[in-house]
Amino acid sequence: MYAFTFEAPASTAAAGQLIAQGGKLLAGGQSLLPSMRLRLANPEKIVDLNSIPELAGIRREANALVIGAMTRHADVAASSEVQAAIPALADLAAGIGDRQVRARGTLGGSVANNDPAACYPSAVLGLGATVITNRREIAADDFFVGMYTTALDEGEIITAVRFPIPKRAAYMKFKQPASRFSLVGVFVAQFDAGVRVAVTGASSCVFRHAGLEAALSRDFTPQAAAAVVIDPSDLNADLHASAAYRANLISVQTQRAVAKMTGA
C-alpha cells in the first residue's frame, strides 16, 4: 500500500464535504481495497461511510422496501422484512460471493460500482427501484449507464434504495465458479402493470430485455420465455463463455425463474 489519509465522518453531510475535497468513498471495501492492492486505484484520501448510522437499515414504506446503502448483504439475506415482502431479493443477497463478502459488502457499494456481473444491479433494475442519494432520487432505468458507470455525479452519495414490492419475483444466477459473480443472472419481477426482466453478467452493463418482458406480460409461462429469440450479437464473449452460450443462459435462467414463481 501507499500513503493516504483516512477519514471516518459521522454524518452524510460531513462525508459529502470530504468528498468535495477529493476523498474516495469506502463502503464495504470489496471492490476498492482489491483495486488499491493491485495499484489500479490510488486515492489520496479515503472517506469511510461505516460510522454513519443513518445509512444502514431496512424499513417498509407503503408498498415498498427502503434499504439503506450501508446495509450488508448478510443483513438483507437474513431480514424477515425482506423475506416476507421480496423473498427474491433476500435470495439474491444470500448468493453473493462467500460468507466473508456478504458480511462486509453493502447494497450501496455494489450499486454504485455497477460491476457488469454484480447481482444487485439486476434487482434494482428488475424491480424498477429508485436510487436515493444525498441530492436527489434516480429511477433505475436512468441509473445504470455503462460498464462501471452510473448516473451519479461527482461527490454524490447513495443513501438508500427504494424497492417496489412486486406480485412475485425470482432471481436465477449461473455462477462463474471461481469468482462467484454472475456468468449470467436474470431477475424477473411481475407487477400489475407487466413484467420486468433484468439481465446481469451477459453484457458490459445490466440491461432489461424487452422481448422477454413483452412475451411474459402476455403469457407468464416458461414456454413463452422459451419462444423468445435471444440475440447474442451484443453479449460478452470471453474465456468463460461465448456470446451464444450466454444468450442461451439468458433464456434458460428466465424460464427457470418463471417456473419457480409459478410452480410449473
TrEMBL record:
Keywords, comma-separated and alphabetical: FAD, Flavoprotein, Oxidoreductase
Pfam assignment, any one: FAD_binding_5
Domain FAD-binding PCMH-type: 1-168
Keyword tRNA-binding: no
Lineage: superkingdom: Bacteria
GO molecular function: FAD binding; oxidoreductase activity
Record keyword Flavoprotein present: yes
Name of the protein: Carbon monoxide dehydrogenase
Species per Swiss-Prot/TrEMBL record: Acidovorax temperans
